[in-house]
Amino acid sequence: MIVVSAASGAFGRLVIDRLLERCPAGQVTVAVRDPAKAADLAARGVTVRTGDYDAPKTLRTAFEGAGRLLLISSPELDPARRTAQHRAAVDAARDVGAGSIIYTSFLGVGTEAGGVTAAHHATERHLAASGLPHTVLRHPFYSEAFLNPGLRDAIASGELADGTGGHGINTALRRDLAEAAARVLTEDGHLGRAYDFTGGLWTYEDLADALSRLSGRPVVRRARTDRAPGAQGWLEDQVRSGALEQQTDDLPRVLGRPATALDEAVAAVLAPPP
Description:
Blueprint: E1 2-5, H1 10-20, E2 28-32, H2 39-43, E3 47-50, H3 56-63, E4 68-71, H4 79-95, E5 101-106, H5 118-130, E6 134-139, H6 151-157, E7 159-162, H7 174-186, E8 194-196, H8 204-215, E9 220-223, H9 230-240, H10 250-255, H11 262-270
Parallel strand pairs: 1-2, 1-4, 2-3, 4-5, 5-6, 6-8, 7-9
Helix pairs in contact: 1-7, 3-4, 4-5, 8-11
């Protein structure tokens, strides 16, 4: 049996979609904090169990019988609380004899143990000490943080504001990462591996060119010197530092195909809603 934790979130639901293309629904169980929010998954034949990262007893029940467990990292931002939640999940899986754990970590954990990677670094160490067979999927930032419906404003104005300093960006789409997770959950040969997942490297110049091609209207990149507010500014800081320029072959290797190309990703964003 495959168990997916935190499956009612955006990434978890994409994983379930990919899993149901690869195995019967009766072999898939989800562990979610609020089962009512996964009623649609139950309607598809998936077993739904209560599994709350802050309630270890529920995790032991939720993970019972798991041959393979996908431990999707908690959305909690406080590193101490997030680490405690992940430790509780790993311990629960060990206590009920789960066959293996696949954990969604973060790119750079192998070399940096602070900031956004702190909880992931601690979790990887705890997972290694648990004795459980495991695989680590180190995710980059999601492409959706940069490629979103706001790009339509750039087409309308003819200018794409860029605060990244022209550096490359190694994001990946949730759907590609979800497909990779589903493959690791259903294929052999992945245990003991730590995969560093990145998509194809792109820049805002590339993005402006893609918007021009796909819209038929000229869009030019305009360098911005002011700092964007909130999370967008923080993301741009990461890009300008060069932290997002690393690129690996792990994602296409696991997918068995290239990661989704920039033009295809942008076209999906610009497509009219169904």
